[in-house]
């Protein structure tokens, strides 16, 4: 009898272990699949993720190696790179219609702002997302394919310690790096309907472009002031073209001020 009880106890323990491992793998794969599926669909660029590690018991986890590519026509290899991000999910919500994410903490992202003075990659990325979500006003309805998606709620979303690599293609790719202002969003999708992954991407990217572009343009202005360094390094045949480019940059910024 004693042996039977011990054997039964061992079997229960093994089942619990198997259940925890299976749950752990399910969460990891679900988060990774969601990001790599929804990301390219709404941004229209490649979205890669090295890995996800989420605890099935606490819901806490890490996202590593997130890379968002650049829209077509831009030369930089990526628009957004995130080495790591912490998140906390309410485990009991994973199998429900709305997944509750208590917090997302994106640490030290690297943003690339590339412009030729007519367009820039971040605005184009946001344009892609807005086109994918199909809504430009409060009363617009999301596309039919989004209405059946799992809904999300993100209580707290932070981006800290980031930097912006500013690149002017018309100045031969000359670049400068400036800090990215911190971002803090709260209460995303807290209503009964929540938000889709596409809607969440749009909200976060909108805020990112709102704070990143002014900082990047200020840096570009300073970069343009130093364009004389480029002039000194080019041949005589290119000299006049570079001078015209420099003047065009200066005139552009004067109009914006």
Largest sheet: 9 strands, mixed
From the spread of the alpha carbons, the general shape counts as elongated
The total count of strands amounts to 9
H/E series: HEEEEEHHEEEEHHH
Tell me what portion of residues adopts beta-strand conformation. 25-35%
Poorly predicted regions are: 5-26, 136-147, 229-250, 252-257
Helix content: 40-55%
* First-to-last CA distance: 87 Å
Mean pLDDT: 76
Number of domains: 2
Structural class: alpha+beta
Describe this structure in words.
The protein is an alpha+beta fold and about 260 residues long. The protein has two domains: about 1-220, no CATH class; about 225-255, no CATH class. About 45% of the residues lie in helices and about 30% in strands. It has helices at about 1-45, 120-135, 145, 195-225, 230-235, 235-255; strands spanning about 45-55, 60-70, 80-90, 100-105, 110-115, 150-160, 165-170, 175-180, 185-190. Strands 1, 2, 3, 4, 5, 6, 7, 8 and 9 form a nine-stranded mixed sheet that branches. A hairpin with a 5-residue loop joins strand 1 and strand 2. Helix 2 runs antiparallel to helix 4. It is elongated, with a radius of gyration of 23 Å. The protein starts with a helix and ends with a helix. Residues about 5-25, about 135-145, about 230-250 and about 250-255 have low confidence and may be disordered.
Main attributes of the structure:
single chain; alpha+beta; 6 helices; disordered C terminus
Brief account:
By secondary structure, this protein is α+β, with helices and mostly antiparallel strands. It has six helices and nine strands. The chain has helices at residues 2-43, 121-133, 144-147, 197-225, 228-233, 236-256, and strands at 47-54, 60-68, 80-89, 98-107, 110-115, 151-160, 163-168, 174-179, 183-188.
């Amino acid at each position: 009898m004693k042996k039977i009880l011990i054997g039964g106890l061992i079997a229960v323990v093994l089942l619990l272990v198997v259940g925890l491992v299976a749950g752990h793998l399910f969460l990891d794969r679900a988060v990774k699949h969601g990001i790599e599926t929804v990301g390219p669909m709404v941004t229209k660029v490649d979205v890669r993720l090295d890995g996800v590690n989420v605890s099935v018991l606490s819901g806490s986890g890490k996202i590593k190696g997130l890379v968002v590519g650049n829209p077509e026509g831009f030369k930089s290899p990526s628009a957004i790179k995130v080495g790591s991000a912490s998140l906390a999910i309410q485990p009991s919500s994973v199998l429900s219609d709305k997944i509750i994410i208590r917090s997302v903490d994106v640490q030290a992202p690297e943003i690339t702002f590339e412009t030729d003075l007519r367009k820039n990659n971040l605005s184009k990325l946001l344009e892609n997302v807005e086109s994918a979500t199909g809504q430009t006003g409060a009363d617009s309805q999301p596309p039919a394919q989004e209405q059946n998606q799992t809904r999300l709620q993100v209580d707290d979303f932070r981006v800290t310690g980031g930097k912006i690599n500013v690149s002017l293609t018309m100045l031969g790719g000359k670049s400068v790096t400036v800090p990215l202002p911190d971002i803090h969003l709260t209460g995303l999708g807290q209503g009964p309907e929540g938000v889709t992954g596409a809607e969440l991407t749009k909200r976060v990217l909108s805020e990112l472009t709102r704070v990143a572009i002014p900082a990047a343009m200020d840096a570009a202005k300073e970069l343009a002031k130093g364009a004389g360094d480029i002039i000194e390094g080019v041949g005589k045949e290119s000299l006049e073209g570079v001078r015209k480019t420099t003047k065009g940059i200066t005139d552009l910024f004067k109009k914006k001020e």
